[in-house]
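User: tokens in, sequence out, please.
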């Protein structure tokens, strides 16, 4: 059996891992979009022939894990796409939104490449490609075993608690007369997530493909999060009379923010200022979240029982209309604007940042991971100038960070997730979805925990196991 890594290899985005069995069956784990500056070429070519892939198994709906599925279909993939039912629901809105962004951004990207004397790119995919891809989705419930390749491979999902519907993928592969048990963790959630249940333990694996995003850091303790958020809101909107801009992923992160603000409002600790959720995608995702309360943890369910709705409070406004979104840029009064994308690489938040970044009364609050080569990454790093829509802007706004909102486990939480394994029985661990320096740090922690053969694959590197 061969495992080859075509994305999220010594970097965070573009998750794609290809398993080829002894009989030649090709199983692709995730098919994500590379995100950030200078990733356009990476998204054009897969490094393999899409038409040769037999099955796609999707861990969750985030665009860096699912965002290239329509292009895979456009380039010849015709097989089934297995995921949880909630992931299928979320992909139904997220892939159509991504197609719209691809169509909208291509002209701007090619104008830049034309000035640089580089080859022009073709459209990654359009809404028709996304619709054709969605027809291939095969929803499966957590714990339900399904079979690939005439029973050559058995697969089931367990809850990874990263976002709604996220899963760790467990494959039992018949190989040379023996069985190899492969687990792909997907992105590992947090045991104390504000909304979702805890991650599930999982059976013993021989081979682990493990994410490592926060393999070198610890999150702020959860009890301090609300107080920290309240201080930022008060400083920006009350003392400075400014705007608080929050780039946030439309799925899970936005809902966590709404829930936190709802709690502050219910307890009388939120100033009476307007809060705008300026993202049609986030609005749709919030509705899908409400329809899937079965995956919520007991604390939020108890809160909903008392409060009635964890995602609605006075002065909260959901904005879908484009003109209403544009009007937010001319408003002078203090407010909070939460908008996608989380890495500030596309969507309405990029316009809001452009219009307010040079205003010293503005605060931009980062609430999760941002790849270094993204606008959010540059702001988080402390760059004094940033490039937005091809123009340079001075960063006069205050930049704040609240990593506790991250849906990724920190290194202690990831080690806790892996504690269900007998490390001495794991033959190989492959670290993916992390920056290289972070992966090196996490590798040392894994070795200390007893995992002996830990690899950090390079892009396109393959291993026979």
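Assistant: Sequence out:
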């Amino acid at each position: 059996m061969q495992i080859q890594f075509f994305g999220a290899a010594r970097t965070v985005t573009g998750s794609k891992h290809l398993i080829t069995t002894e009989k030649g069956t090709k199983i692709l784990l995730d098919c994500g979009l590379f995100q950030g500056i200078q990733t356009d070429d990476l998204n054009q070519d897969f490094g393999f022939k899409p038409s040769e892939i037999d099955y796609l198994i999707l861990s969750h709906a985030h665009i860096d894990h699912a965002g290239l599925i329509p292009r895979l279909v456009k380039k010849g993939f015709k097989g089934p796409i297995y995921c949880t039912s909630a992931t299928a629901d979320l992909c139904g809105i997220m892939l159509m939104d991504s197609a719209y962004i691809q169509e909208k951004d291509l002209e701007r990207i090619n104008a830049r490449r034309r000035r640089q004397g580089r080859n022009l790119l073709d459209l990654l995919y359009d809404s028709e490609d996304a619709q054709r891809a969605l027809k291939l989705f095969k929803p499966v419930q957590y714990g339900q075993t399904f079979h690939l390749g005439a029973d050559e491979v058995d697969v089931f999902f367990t809850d990874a608690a990263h976002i709604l519907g996220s899963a760790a993928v467990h494959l039992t592969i018949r190989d040379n007369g023996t069985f190899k048990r492969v687990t792909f963790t997907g992105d590992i959630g947090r045991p104390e997530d504000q909304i979702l249940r805890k991650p599930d333990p999982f059976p013993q694996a021989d081979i682990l493909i493990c994410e490592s995003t926060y393999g070198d850091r610890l999150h702020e303790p959860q009890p301090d999060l609300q107080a920290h958020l309240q201080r930022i809101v008060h400083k920006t909107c009350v003392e400075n009379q400014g705007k608080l801009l929050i780039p946030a992923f439309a799925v899970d992160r936005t809902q966590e923010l709404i829930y936190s603000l709802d709690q502050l409002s219910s307890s009388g600790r939120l100033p009476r200022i307007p809060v705008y959720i300026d993202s049609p995608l986030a609005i749709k995702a919030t509705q899908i979240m409400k329809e899937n309360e079965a995956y919520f943890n007991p604390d939020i369910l108890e809160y909903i029982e008392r409060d009635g709705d964890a995602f609605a409070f006075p002065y909260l406004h959901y904005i879908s209309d484009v003109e209403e979104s544009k009007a937010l840029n001319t408003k002078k009064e203090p407010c909070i604007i939460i908008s996608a994308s989380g890495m500030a690489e596309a969507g309405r938040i990029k316009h809001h940042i452009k219009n307010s970044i040079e205003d010293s009364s503005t605060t931009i609050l980062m609430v999760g991971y941002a790849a270094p080569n993204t606008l959010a990454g540059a702001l988080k790093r402390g760059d004094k100038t940033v490039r937005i829509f091809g123009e340079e802007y001075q960063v006069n706004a205050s930049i704040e960070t609240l990593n506790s909102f991250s849906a990724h486990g920190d290194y202690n939480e990831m080690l806790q997730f892996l504690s269900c394994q007998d490390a001495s029985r794991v033959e190989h661990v492959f670290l993916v979805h992390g920056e290289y320096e972070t992966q090196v740090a996490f590798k040392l922690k894994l070795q200390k925990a007893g995992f002996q053969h830990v690899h950090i694959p390079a892009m396109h590197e393959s291993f026979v196991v």
